[in-house]
Amino acid sequence: MVNVTRDFFIGLSNNKFLNEYAKKWGFRLGAEKFVAGTTVDSVAKVVKELNSIGISCTLDNLGEFVSDKAESTKAKEEILRLLDRIHTDKLDCHLSVKLTQLGLDIDREFCVENMKEILTIAGSYGIFVNIDMEDYSHYQQTIDVLLELRKDFDNVGTVMQAYLYRTEDDLEDLKDVRLRLVKGAYKESSDVAYQSKEDIDRAFIKIAKKRLEEAEFTSIATHDHRIINEMKAFVKKKNISNDKFEFQMLYGFRTEMHSNLAEEGYNFCTYIPFGSDWFGYFMRRLAERPQNVNLVVKDVFCK
Ligand code: FAD
């Protein structure tokens, strides 16, 4: 039943018509609980509040699977304006971007040039840019683009998904790259990815420990309190400095844990999506946690 619900929402997240329609529709279905508004002003306000309690942020100007160059150029320009705002307002935050928003499916070179422009400005402001990992059909291209960009820029990293069988091996060549580790949000086949929660959790814990002992800065991105507790115990036992990692969670999820972890002295970063292209992101969150569907039902019926 859980898998049927998951597949249903993942299916909706990929529906181009609904994604387009939702942009004109404005926030519905309770999306505002997980998406911090549609404008830079609205998201800057949220970042300032979180910064004031010791939480840093990563901002995602929502958008993905773009098939039109003009739309990718517009997304890049919005990201450049966002960088200016982060710099001017001295916000403690970095950026998360998706290569398919910046044209990967249209023309790889065009996408790389967009990224270079973003990284040049971000670098001049001392801002790190993380490339979100999308579905498996974009996995190798994402790693290849990252490695190409890293020849000229050191302020760029990406995300690795513990559910992919190949992640552990691929990480051997990425030890010097700042990375976010996640379980993985897309529906992938058993040819490439673990399917059960137990296998995915086991892989996540194994990879996270290896990263903490052997690699560059790692963002441990999960809402799973069992994994977080295991990581806390591990860094204590191995005497690993808090400077080597941070915990990351999504805006609107388990918010009491965000401030608790920051108060305990851990680096904590909230991933904040914003913008009008909210539908695909929101549907993936419903796929992960069917309990959130209750919020949607309330939003539809209790207004
Ligand atoms: P789950 O397996 O979903 O949850 C584990 C347990 O935690 C649950 O059984 C429950 O006990 C508890 N729990 C979880 N959520 C809640 C809640 N809201 N309230 C109460 N208890 C809860 N995926 C990608 O593929 N690419 C990316 O670039 C990417 N970036 C991400 C960035 C961040 C900061 C985060 C947090 C996730 C990102 N993801 C990304 C999504 C990720 O892959 C997972 O799909 C998502 O985080 C759900 O997995 P989980 O680790 O939170 O644990």
Quaternary structure classification = single chain
Category by helix and strand content: alpha/beta
The CATH class label is Alpha Beta
Q: Spatial order of the strands in the main sheet?
A: 1-2-3-4-5-6-7-8
Form type: globular
| Associated small molecules | flavin-adenine dinucleotide
SS elements, strand count = 8
- Could you give the order of the helices and strands? HHHEHEHEHEHEHEHEHEHH
Q: What do we call the CATH topology? A: TIM Barrel
CATH architecture heading? Alpha-Beta Barrel
Q: Can you walk me through this structure?
A:
Helix content is 49%, strand content 14%. α5 links the parallel β2 (93-97) and β3. With 303 residues, it is of the alpha/beta class. It has a single domain (36-277), classed as TIM Barrel. Strands 1-2-3-4-5-6-7-8 form an eight-stranded parallel barrel, surrounded by six helices. The protein has twelve helices and eight strands. The chain has helices at 2-13, 16-25, 40-52, 69-88, 108-124, 139-150, 167-170, 197-214, 225-237, 255-263, 279-288, 293-301, and strands at residues 56-61, 93-97, 129-131, 156-161, 179-182, 218-221, 245-250, 268-274. α1 packs antiparallel against α11 (279-288), α4 (69-88) packs parallel to α5 and α8 runs parallel beside α9. The model is unreliable at 297-303 (pLDDT under 50). The chain is globular and about 50 Å long. Residues 132-133, 159, 161, 182-186, 197, 221-224, 248-250, 253-254, 271, 288-289 line the site of flavin-adenine dinucleotide.
